[in-house]
Amino acid sequence: MSRSARVIWDDALTSYNFGPSHPLHPVRVELTMALARDLGVLDKVEMSGCDPAGDDELALVHDRGYIEAVKRVSASGRPDLSAGLGTTDNPAFAGVHEASALIAGASLAAARAVWEGAAEHAINVAGGLHHAMPAAASGFCVYNDPALAIAWLLEQGVSRVAYVDVDVHHGDGVQTVFYDDPRVLTISLHESPRTLFPGTGFPEETGADGTAVNVALPAGTGDSGWLRAFHAVVPPLLHEFGPEILVTQHGCDSHALDPLANLMLSVDGQRAAYAALHRLAHETAGGRWIATGGGGYELVQVVPRAWTHLIAEVSGHPVDPATPTGQNWRQFVRERTGETPPLTMTDGRNSEFRDLSGGYDPADPIDRAVMATRNAVFPLHGLDPMP
């Protein structure tokens, strides 16, 4: 399906490090890249480095006063609570600006490669820091790299960008940046804000002309319900909106083993979502697709397998779920973390689901969540909310 794919990577991307006890530990991307390399996934893509985002690029999304505050924290290592740095979620550390700007630069490099035609698809697995606000760090995120990539594309003259966020947490920072901009369609599927940070992402948050879309799913939603909701909302909106480029965020903290959230997806269900978004990139955006990582806090069992599947999907050469993880990688995991690694690339689940076209069940909380979203935004796009 893919013509060319590029992975943006630099070992220095692991310098975004809030400390050994913080959930967002860089070992998760280190293990991901090691697994993708061990399985030969990286042999099927172009690899490219990146430069840190400059101040003018960061200022496409972030207030210049905030950028200067991050730089001061970066130089001193001392907190600045007015900038959101020095909290439990976002500890202050020396070098935080440089580490954050490099992640932002990696997503900008992915956007540039796709926009300029150097690659059809591009991915930054270290990115997806979707909670960062224009003037404050939030939810483990300092600079909002997906929003920066979108803002840069708009600066180049792109007229319509669609952003789909499948992280378990609402993509609040990206929504905030583009809430009143009808050129950007933001779709977030997440655990209900009634039970999870950041407490936003209700269906009634519809933005400019219905271009903010939120599917707030009940705690306990698994593969079949999540995929039912995805297919009931995302494809019809993308087809109607007709983006020039699709940008996606792939937090894998929707997994049942994730310690910070309450959805119940498997690696297999997540893999099915990646494949669906790949198809939609070709069906609705001429194949132009920029993907990022995101959340994911089961560092060994989930993140490396989920994002290796993502890189493989971006490459156009998906990995068979039955594939063993490989002895070399397993040994590396033991040496690096002391944990027991997974043996295969599957959780042994299937990704079957019932399509909403067969009718919805008003007694089902997942169907109620889906219909709340469809009723809120479908008429604003000229679509019938009823299945």
Automatic annotation (TrEMBL):
Keyword ATP-binding belongs to the record: no
Organism for this UniProt entry: Nonomuraea monospora
Domain Histone deacetylase span(s) in chain numbering: 22-313
Listed pathway(s): Ketone degradation; acetoin degradation
SUPFAM superfamilies documented for this protein: Arginase/deacetylase
UniProt name for this protein: Acetoin utilization protein AcuC
Keywords, alphabetical: Acetoin catabolism
Family membership noted in the UniProt record: Belongs to the histone deacetylase family.
Pfam families: Hist_deacetyl
Signal sequence segment: none
